[in-house]
Hints:
Elements: H1 4-18, H2 27-68, H3 72-106, E1 125-130, H4 143-149, E2 154-155, H5 156-162, E3 169-170, H6 172-192, E4 196-198, E5 203-205, H7 206-212, E6 224-226, E7 231-233, H8 238-242, E8 249-250, E9 255-264, E10 283-293, H9 298-315, E11 320-324, E12 336-344, E13 349-358, H10 362-367, E14 370-372, E15 379-381, E16 383-391, H11 392-402, E17 410-411, E18 425-426
Parallel strand pairs: 4-9, 8-14
Antiparallel strand pairs: 1-11, 2-3, 5-7, 6-7, 9-10, 10-16, 11-12, 12-13, 13-16, 14-15, 17-18
Helix pairs in contact: 2-3, 6-11
Amino acid sequence: xxxxxxxxxxxxxxxxxxxxxxxxxxxxxxxxxxxxxxxxxxxxxxxxxxxxxxxxxxxxxxxxxxxxxxxxxxxxxxxxxxxxxxxxxxxxxxxxxxxxxxxxxxxxxxxxxxxxxxxxxxxxxxxxxxxxxxxxxxxxxxxxxxxxxxxxxxxxxxxxxxxxxxxxxxxxxxxxxxxxxxxxxxxxxxxxxxxxxxxxxxxxxxxxxxxxxxxxxxxxxxxxxxxxxxxxxxxxxxxxxxxxxxxxxxxxxxxxxxxxxxxxxxxxxxxxxxxxxxxxxxxxxxxxxxxxxxxxxxxxxxxxxxxxxxxxxxxxxxxxxxxxxxxxxxxxxxxxxxxxxxxxxxxxxxxxxxxxxxxxxxxxxxxxxxxxxxxxxxxxxxxxxxxxxxxxxxxxxxxxxxxxxxxxxxxxxxxxxxxxxxxxxxx
Length: 427
């Protein structure tokens, strides 16, 4: 959530900044609601002051009325009238504040100044590449054909039978390779990169999704479990991990966490896209990195976290490129995002495998997650950073395709062989 003070004082510059994301801020609506809130707040404060003042003097007035034979009941009635006026004013303020909060919840984060202009992924800026795509001397297969040929290791037909489209069953050595990737990623982040491992719930409440910005805007992309209690399956570990400090004042920063979870997405807006294979599934797994930092640390933390994801691909010897997203392609809650894209031989292109973002205090305001500023001694909003390290299913796809052999087998990356019982190939 954007700082309401910033909106009140810099509404025109905020509106201009949001245009970079393709969002047109309704300045008139905000100004009308803000004026109504201010008026309602002043009325509520005045009503409360009148009631409090009367309550303080009521004992003396009652005593005076009894001594003089006055009407004590009238004094009581006046007290009730002031109390009701105060409650009515507070209710009016709550209604107006609710409308204003609903508007604020729909406004995306403003992009960082370093984010380039642009409409979609075609306008993103490539920053660097690593590795050279392999040249094959045989016909390239995609991961669907490779996986199904390896002892039925990838079975999409049974996934459809069990659940429906965009689900898969992994068997045998392919399932073990998937598990090996998870263990490798977690070991790298916890042993080499300074992250603390978390095991978190896969079901969250509405407040958690509001805090990270998935709600209310992206409700159609979520799997909802219960109407009464409003439970949802997590779309990413970002949600439960970032909510770790919701409503708290954190005593020490930075704090760095990593968590492996399944992720569940309805893919409501992707009809007809990537229908073949594992690129876009309703259920997939990720290893997610989250950092909580002071504002001055945030820029460096984003670079560090992005590098942690890149190193994984380098150790797996998978070619990749890193791009800076333009304004139109930057997410709702993010101020700045780097996408890391891995090379897929079957598509002859790079595909996203990690998205690393800096959110400023946007999520922290929604979460009321703060730290105590050393200089002022007062609570202040912390900054959040997160990124995939990595998306496990897409990493599996990249390994199967980049390491495929002419005889149909798949070579196991050297770094993964200890996790595969020493096996150098799967057949």
